[in-house]
Amino acid sequence: MDNKTKVLYDDGHHKCVMFGFDDESHEDSFLSVNQYLIVQNGVGVLIDPGSESIFDELYEEVSEHVEIKDIKFIFLSHQDPDVSGSIAQWALVTKAKFIMSSLWVRFMSHYGFMEMDRVMSLPDHGARLNFGEDSLTFIPAHFLHSPGNFSLYDTKSKVVFSGDIGAAIVSSPDGYKKVGSFEEHKEHLLAFHQRYMGSNKLCRAWASQIKSLDVQTIAPQHGLVFEGEDTDKFLDWLSELECGSDLLENLYPTGK
């Protein structure tokens, strides 16, 4: 296993794997991208598989953990190309169902995906999906940063796959992408969340949902993973954050 891959959870039957294949054309921007896989008893769920440019690398690494033909679901937290750009490639090599907000189903044709009968569209309030002996919960995260956005909670591993929530602008480390000191990491979170999150009210609504769950890990699509007490520290920080429309005068200085 290379340093782009980390097993977040493994009890012998249920496993969560983190990948870190970045788009080399954006290497200078230091917006590291994470992809995730859940496997239970040989059946896979691929999470935010990323852009077309990383498809070959990710395919090879995913196949080390699950047979590609046994990927049953592919979850897209939102519509951005660094999340969904490879949807047409994954549609060709799997028979998976694609899970996404109902807002984005029609947009997928712009990525070359036309098999709409393979889409499971999520209602705004989310959904719960049985997965083997456990379940996957799709948690509303609208306007954080996408208007149709969901996080995914895996009840077995207690991992929240949070998409852009928790993202940080950091250079990709050589080893495991884990927060070392939350106090030091806050400065890398601030600018991204102030601009990309819709408002404090929305942040508090999402954080409240996550605090009601038994969470061990928050795994964002960009940046570093929060574990243990850092998950609570992040949720508390996010709950108090002024962002988006709270900073309206900074964005529209001539009007209110």
> Helix segment count?
7
For the largest beta sheet, what order do the strands appear in spatially? 1-2-3-4-5-6-7
Radius of gyration: 17 Å
The biggest beta sheet reads: 7 strands, mixed
CATH architecture: 4-Layer Sandwich
Structure description:
This protein is α/β, with parallel strands linked by helices and 256 residues long. The chain has a single domain, classed as Ribonuclease Z/Hydroxyacylglutathione hydrolase-like (Metallo-beta-lactamase, Chain A), CATH 3.60.15.10. 24% of the residues lie in helices and 25% in strands. The chain is built from seven helices and 13 strands. The strands form two sheets. Strands 1-2-3-4-5-6-7 form a seven-stranded mixed sheet, covered by helices on one side. The longest helix has 15 residues, at 182-196. The termini are far apart. The mean pLDDT is 91.
